[in-house]
């Protein structure tokens, strides 16, 4: 190795710092001390003979050379991981495991579609899944028990990155025979005196429901607290309660439940995303899932464009 060539470890440290432009957060994500990260950055500047960062008050920002190095470091580290995978595969020692956590409402379509994409690109991938509440899943991710979680809301904390997949509005769930079921939209005040069914504390849907009711000017009377959205839908269908759940629940197609959009003044929308530790983003199993997420977004955008063009074309066609 050339004496001035950076090591893989130095590139990994610098890339983690570059992603956050913060020594403390980079140190936390790498389980290093702040001085160790600072020394690694200074060592790179010395080896390369160019400044990579600039202090701006209390912040440290990347210079242009630093951004170029970060881009190249990402490529080098990914190439290293892929080379190791190829060698292990050739030796018959390939063993890829992807551990994914997900919210209940994503288990019917969103997660299976993402995993199908992963398996198209890596058929030998072994996959383990775990469903649960957003808070518990994020805790498992931070503890290293999961490689990624599909959740909402997307957590904002050091060392955590995300690929936002889509926005999912909340709807009012009422029995199919309910007078509100036929409305184009509803205000939550219309059900303020009714019993509610809700998920337990720690679920993002409960949090969004409480916030929406607060905007409507009341605190809901939660008569049923359960562990999964399927039971919530069942209670609504049995005419025991109403509920506020994400529109994605429509994937269940419960025959006895109607989903009514909320009026804009109280409407709530969650952003669903793939959440992972930024320090692990270059691990091949996780990278495949991240790539699947981006392809999912591209398909949705393309579908929207095609739909828009089709509608516009139909509106200008002369009538027969």
| Biggest sheet character | 7 strands, mixed
In which range does the helix fraction lie? 40-55%
Percent strand: 15-25%
In total, the number of strands is 11
Give the class from helix and strand content and strand pairing: alpha/beta
CATH T-level topology of the largest domain: D-Maltodextrin-Binding Protein, domain 2
The total count of helices amounts to: 9
**Order of SSEs, N→C?**
HHHEEHEHEHEEEHEHEEEH
Give the overall pLDDT as a whole number. Answer: 86
CATH architecture classification name of the largest domain: 3-Layer(aba) Sandwich
CATH class of the largest domain: Alpha Beta
List the domain count as a whole number.
Answer: 3
Low-confidence stretches: none
Q: N- to C-terminal separation?
A: 75 Å
Can you walk me through this structure?
- The protein is an alpha/beta fold.
- It folds into 3 domains: 8-90, Arc Repressor Mutant, subunit A (Orthogonal Bundle), CATH 1.10.10.10; 97-165 and 272-305, 3-Layer(aba) Sandwich (D-Maltodextrin-Binding Protein, domain 2), CATH 3.40.190.10; 166-270, D-Maltodextrin-Binding Protein, domain 2, CATH 3.40.190.
- Helix content is 43%, strand content 22%.
- The strands form 3 sheets. Strands 3, 4, 5, 6, 9, 10 and 11 form a 7-stranded mixed sheet that branches. A two-stranded antiparallel ribbon has the order 1-2.
- α5 links the parallel β3 (97-102) and β4 (126-131).
- It is elongated.
């Amino acid at each position: 190795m050339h004496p001035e060539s950076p090591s893989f470890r130095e590139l990994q440290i610098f890339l983690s710092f570059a992603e956050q432009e913060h020594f403390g957060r980079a140190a936390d994500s790498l389980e290093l001390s702040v001085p160790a990260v600072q020394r690694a950055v200074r060592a790179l500047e010395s080896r390369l003979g160019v400044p990579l960062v600039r202090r701006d008050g209390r912040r440290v920002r990347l210079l242009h050379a630093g951004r170029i190095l970060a881009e190249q470091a990402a490529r080098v580290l990914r190439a290293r991981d892929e080379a190791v995978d190829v060698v292990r595969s050739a030796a018959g020692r390939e063993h890829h495991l992807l551990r994914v956590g997900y919210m209940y409402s994503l288990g019917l379509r969103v997660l299976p579609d993402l995993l199908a994409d992963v398996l198209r690109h890596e058929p030998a991938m072994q996959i383990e899944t775990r469903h649960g509440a957003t808070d518990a899943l994020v805790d498992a991710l931070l503890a290293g028990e999961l490689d990624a979680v599909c959740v909402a809301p997307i957590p904002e904390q050091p060392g955590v990155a995300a690929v936002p997949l889509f926005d999912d509005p909340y709807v009012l769930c009422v029995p199919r025979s309910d007078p509100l079921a036929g409305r184009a939209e509803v205000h939550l005040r219309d059900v303020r005196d009714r019993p509610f069914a809700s998920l337990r504390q720690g679920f993002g849907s409960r949090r969004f429901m409480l916030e929406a009711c607060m905007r409507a000017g009341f605190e809901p009377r939660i008569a049923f607290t359960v562990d999964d959205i399927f039971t919530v839908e069942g209670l609504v269908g049995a005419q025991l309660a109403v509920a506020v759940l994400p529109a994605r629940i429509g994937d269940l197609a419960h025959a006895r439940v109607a989903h009514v959009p909320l009026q804009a003044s109280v409407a709530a929308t969650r952003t669903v995303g793939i959440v992972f530790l930024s320090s692990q983003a270059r691990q091949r199993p996780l990278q495949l899932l991240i790539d699947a997420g981006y392809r999912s977004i591209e398909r949705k955008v393309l579908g929207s464009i095609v739909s828009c063009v089709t509608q516009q074309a139909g509106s200008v066609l002369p009538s027969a």
